[in-house]
Amino acid sequence: MTAEISTRQEVLLLSDREVKDKTSSKTIMGVGEKKTYTLSYFNVRGRAEPIRMLFALAEVDYTDKRISHVDWPALKSATPFGQLPVLEVSGDNMKAPLTLSQTNSILRYLAREFGLDGRTSSDKVKVDMIVETMRDSINPITEIFNETDENKRNEVLFKYSEDLLPRFLNYLTENLSSEWFLDQVSLADAVIYVAFDNISMFLPDFLDRKSYWKLREWRSRFESHPKICEWLSIRPTTAY
Ligand SMILES: N[C@@H](CCC(=O)N[C@@H](CS)C(=O)NCC(=O)O)C(=O)O
């Protein structure tokens, strides 16, 4: 399928579509093309959950493939970096199917495809900041999760709750727009929601602090978003 587009800016925004002639006729391939998405991850929320939330927000169908730990060793070498999540994308008009690895790359790709990455350049970089801060905040959580020595575990948890976490939550409190993180729902909201889920797992009362009332309101609003509300009601119940 082809389509005529009018400005250079639009060409740049139309991600992943084959541009035939960027300078003159600006005919692009693949507009309106139906893509097929398969997301592979373990049967937990983990790193895949913000990706699943993007599909929910965009109301785009995908296969939510859940790999068992028993099957994983046989599948590992077929993935780009021996890790999950992996997103496979194919479509009639794509030159070749894509096999994508790295959570944040997948998140950014889908957010761009679905128009959930912010409207302006300033909004896009704010979304990026949230995505990167989330990565930093997941690392200590993973460490806490895997640490068997209780003293070491408490040490990491204490440092996390006294330093990185308050900074992150204060930044959010100061930067939330009236309804969402930006003036429209975006990848940032999905990522923040999953971060709060993780925080609540280890520090169940942390967000109850008086100064975080704005964040609690935001969380309830996000949970009430019709597409998120539906996803939360149908998603498989898993340990984390
Ligand atoms: N930087 C990667 C890390 C991915 C990662 O650590 N995946 C874990 C699951 S959360 C995994 O695949 N573990 C199994 C293995 O390494 O064999 C990303 O963000 O996607």
UniProtKB/TrEMBL annotation:
Residues 35-118 form the GST N-terminal domain. Keywords: Eye lens protein, Transferase. It is an enzyme of class 2 (transferase). One of its GO terms (molecular function) is glutathione transferase activity. Its EC number is 2.5.1.18. One of its GO terms (biological process) is glutathione metabolic process. It comes from the Eukaryota. Residues 120-240 form the GST C-terminal domain. It catalyses: RX + glutathione = an S-substituted glutathione + a halide anion + H(+). Belongs to the GST superfamily. S-crystallins are structural components of squids and octopi eye lens. Contains relatively little if any GST activity. This is glutathione transferase. It comes from Bugula neritina (Brown bryozoan).
